[in-house]
Amino acid sequence: MSQSSVRLEIQHLSRAFGGVPVVSDVSLTIAAGQVTCLLGPSGCGKSTTLRMIAGVERPDSGSIRIDGRPVFDARTNLPPEARSVGLIFQDFALFPHLTVAQNVAFGLKTDREAKARRVDELLERVNLPGFGPKHPHQLSGGEQQRVALARALAPRPKVMLMDEPFSGLDNRLRDGIRDTTLEVLKEEGAAVLLVTHEPDEALRMGDEIALMRGGHIVQTGAPYNVYNAPVDRAAAAFFSDINVIRGVSRGALTETPFGSFLTPGHADGGTVEIVIRPQHLKIDLDRAGRGPSPTPMDGTAARGTVIRARFLGRESLVELALDEGGQRLTASVPGVFLPKPGTVLWLMIRRDRCFVFPHPA
Amino acid sequence: MSLATRWARFRKSEGGSGLALVSPTAIYAILLLAAPLATILLFSVLTDGYLVVEPVFTFGNYIETWTNRIYRSVMMRSLGVSVAVTVLTVLLAYPVAYFVSFHVQPSKKSLWLFLITIPFWTSYLIRVFLWKVILGYNGVINSGLMATGIIDEPLTAISYNVQAFVVTLAHAYAPFAILPIYVVLEKIDRSLLEAGQDLGESKFRTFLRVTLPLSVPGIAAAVLIVFIPTIGDYVTPNLIGGGKIPMIANMIEVLMLVRDNKPLGAAIAVSAMAIVTAVSLLFLFTIRKYLRGQK
User: Fold this and answer.
1) How does A148-177 read in b/e, with b if 16+ C-beta sit within 10 Å?
2) Record's superkingdom (chain A) (predicted)?
3) Which of A47, A127, A209, B121 sits 20 to 30 Å CA-CA off A228?
4) Rounded Cα gap, residues A191 and A194, in angstroms
5) A303 by DSSP, 3-state: which?
6) Could you give the domains of chain A?
């Protein structure tokens, strides 16, 4: 993306509440038409970051630029209304005393006719034609969310901020509304910053994910990269359950029940953690005590005993204890696979899907 | 089924215990509220005799009430004073309620509300007397201004007149107006105000377009709470006005107790009640748009 299309640029943003840092040195850039998901557990500072960009929270230091124009730095602090920022709240914050049409028209400064046109156009776009005269309390959650979207989009903001915008919605409604929202946002070409604590939502919606923890952005990248190349164990654990196999690195090799792993760059004698997601464990049946013959990519197979198997609909989770060392691992198998506890199985792990991290001291 | 078992069954039933619970209040209300009110209504259509009320039906009292210029002008003056007091009280109460709700730290809000209610610790009569001391002919303001040489003789424009009532009553009813407005302001979702600003409106415009319309129910409550009792207030006009500028309540008092014309007094009282009800309903009807359609 070219430099000129950068819509939102924040640099070294920090904020502390009562001496406790909540956001520390956060930097981000978002281009026009790009959706960046700020993902992190609750209390990690993601909402505060969003509120600082919106202008309702004052940063302690750092700078915010929208379309190259500083809206906050050491000398400037534009009020929210002058920033050209749209905000969608978790509870939608629709004005209860106004109709849907009046809500959508709230931020429009044009004459009556142009207002009505824009309101109709937006209600059409969010799939709510004819809802204009209704009041917010007459709408369902999903409809309210779409009105909030139309209202925020009406003044054509350059930057759209969304604070957990789908968390108040019914699970089954959510996917449809997410897709509609994404489509509308792309058409409008605003830079979107979406705050969420749900990895699925971030993976689904984001062109880019910024993973936040303890007030810092720990990793930024495309969903594929953030999921498949996590920077540390916690980053990996945020997206799914993980299996952790510990070992001691000796001469750049770590011995595990699955054979030796190459662990270059780790301290000799230091503990390393090998992280693997449940869906990357391969299961093979025990044929009269003989194991499978794995490919070099799968390394050595290890034998284990089933402790518990659960069916989750799309997949089945099988918990096993390894014969060697007794470590427990969880494997996810697509479809129905429910071996009885006590069944002996062979396990292989895909070496290319393993992440090796030093054991945190 | 015998009467005794039926009674025992009724006493055990949910309806029976409910009635038993409300009966003290109900008896109290019937004896002290409904019965006197019915008596007033009855008196208003009876004929006045010398020292007695004669049981002869007439509409004469109402005709007298609505045609006599004195009663009409006193009624209009009372309405005017009540409206002025209401407007002044609500105008002064709103900023206080707004300040407590939006600018006082949450931990200190109770303290502020407590301080606002402190004037209630003293009797209403004493509060009215305080204003008499402040505004009176030899009062604080007059003697202060004379001592500093700003005026040579006491100002008459500040005491024994309608303005003095309005000031006194506005002060007396301030907490009644502050509390309902405070309650609705507290209920306003703060994210609505952020939303207003994010949509490009300044803080002041957001107040006009979001906070103010959403606080209308509280304003309506404050208006009614102040307006309805002030029109019937007769202690303040007596003390502050020195009895020289009667309000409708003083008129009723004089007719009932001094001139012993109970039927006419009753007719004026009923008329005043009807006018207050009509004005209140008209007010609620005018602002009905803001009272419904809310979460």
Assistant:
1) bbbbbbbbebbbbbbbbbbeebeeeebeeb
2) Bacteria
3) A47
4) 10
5) strand
6) 3-238 (3.40.50.300), 240-358 (2.40.50.140)
Please determine, looking at this structure, whether the domain spanning B69-291 carries the CATH number 1.10.3720.10: yes
With beta carbons under 8 A apart, name residues in chain B contacting A136: 295
Q: Token digits for A230?
A: 């996590």
N residues, chain A: 361
Tell whether A18 is within 8 A of chain B (Cβ): no
pLDDT value, residue B159: 66
* Cβ <8 Å between A85 and B198: yes
Of the candidates B189, B198, B209, the beta carbon closest to that of A80 is on: B198
Cα–Cα distances in Å, from A187 out to A34, A108, A197, B10, B230? 11, 19, 25, 70, 60
Q: Taking the domains of chain B in order of start, what are their residue ranges?
A: 69-291
Note the ipTM here: 0.70
Task: Please count the other Cβ atoms lying within 10 Å of the Cβ belonging to residue B22.
Answer: 10
Q: B202 in contact with A at a CB cutoff of 8 Å?
A: yes
Which residues of A fall within a CB distance of 8 Å from B200? 81-82, 84, 107, 109, 155
Q: Does A215 touch chain B (CB under 8 A)?
A: no
